[in-house]
Amino acid sequence: MTPIWRNTLTFVGATTLTFGMAHAQSPELSDPPEIEGEVVGDHGSHTLRMGIGLAESSPQYLSSQYFGEILEQRTDGRITVNVFPNSQLGDDVQMMEMLQTGTLDMTYPSSSATTGYVEELAAFDLPFLLPSREAAVAVMQSDVAQDMLDAFEGTGLKALAFSENGYRQLSNSARPVASPDDVAGLDVRGLSVRTMENPVHLAIWEALGANPTPMAFGELFSAMEQGVVDGQENPWSTILTSNFNEVQDYGTETRHVYTPFIMMLSERTWDRMAPEYQELVLEAARQSAEYEIQLSAEYDDWSRDQLAERGMEITRLDDEQLAAFQDAVQPVYEEWAPRIGEDLIADIQKIVEESSN
User: Is residue 30 part of a domain?
Assistant: First the structure.
């Protein structure tokens, strides 16, 4: 690992940020791997517009920049990528629809937003299915996951690679949460928790006694600020880079769902590319996805600790407390395992088991 990455980057939207500047602290993030490989043949020029949901300091943005650097260097500047962060171009669903119509070239949604295209991806939304990052990476790099990416064929979306959104954690502005009873609020109302428009996520929070409220990510900060919802669930890095600690007093390390990202290209854009460019785009996507996973791992615990330093009260669950959450969401498996595919879930569980040996 290299020293703190202090490059100054100019971001889309006329924002300039220097790592190591905010709060005079930053995580020790690894530099991007050196770009290897020869320059490919001249097959014309492409300028790719890529919309993402997260902020300029997020691993998603940094790895997207690296993706663009690979393409630019290995095409001698004939392929360039312009990244638009912070949901500037819409939420995950809207940007995928833009890919289908050809009005946007690339996006990087959470897998949870894609289940309307490939139902099997709902397996990643099942609670506590992936107990460790190592298990999650093993699944994302498996033939099972590749089959899911291939299943997008014909949807207007070319799915390139999985990377890490991360383990979802609960934050809220109402009270500390150390048990499902704290979520349900036995003596007070249950927490209203923003979720994605995803039926498995809704089922999880209903099982825990909350009032789940689907909402676009770009609307979330103001909704929490105005008290429309009490809280939300996202990885620590997303909570930090989105400044949710400014409107959320309490965080709980539930790790209830591990969510991947999926880098996507419009099929219309893909079809306009020469085969050698297509091969390079796939290679660059996989390389940048590996880098994004590495950044996310480096960012995760640091983000939690930073949130605590900035005033968020963090509850870390012990084994007994975690088991109470796992027991509470068992009805979600009973409802959704037959619909997602019990054989698929068994295949994933086998990969998880093998990754721990």
Answer: no
- How does pLDDT run across 150-206, given as a tens digit for each residue? 999 999 999 999 999 999 999 999 999 999 999 998 767 899 999 998 999 999 999
CATH code at position 71? 3.40.190.170
Tell whether 17 is covered by a domain: no
> Residue 25: its pLDDT value, please?
63
Q: Report the alpha-carbon distance of residue 214 to residue 194 in Å, rounded.
A: 6
19 found inside a domain: no
The one-character DSSP state at 204 is H
Q: Is residue 184 helix, strand or coil?
A: helix
In a domain, 202, yes or no: yes
Question: Are the C-beta atoms of residues 213 and 226 closer than 8 Å to each other?
Answer: no
**Residue ranges with strand state E in the chain:** 8-11, 15-18, 46-51, 79-84, 106-107, 157-167, 169-172, 192-195, 211-214, 231-234, 250-253, 258-266, 313-316
Helix, strand, coil percentages (3-state) for the chain, rounded to 5, are 45, 20, 35
Q: Give the count of domains, the chain.
A: 1
Sequence-distant (6+) residues with CB within 8 A of 18 are: 6, 7, 8
Pairing of strands 157-167, 211-214: unpaired
Q: What token pair was written down for 236?
A: 């620590």
Domain of 107 in residue numbering reads as 46-356
Tokens 């998603």, residue located: 60
> Rounded to whole angstroms, what are the CA distances from 274 to 46, 77, 286?
11, 16, 19
Nearest to 88 by CA among 111, 114, 54, 48: 54
Radius of gyration for the alpha carbons in the chain, expressed in angstroms and rounded:
20
* CA dist., res. 342 & res. 136, Å (int): 18
Backbone phi, psi, residue 275, to 5°: -55, -40
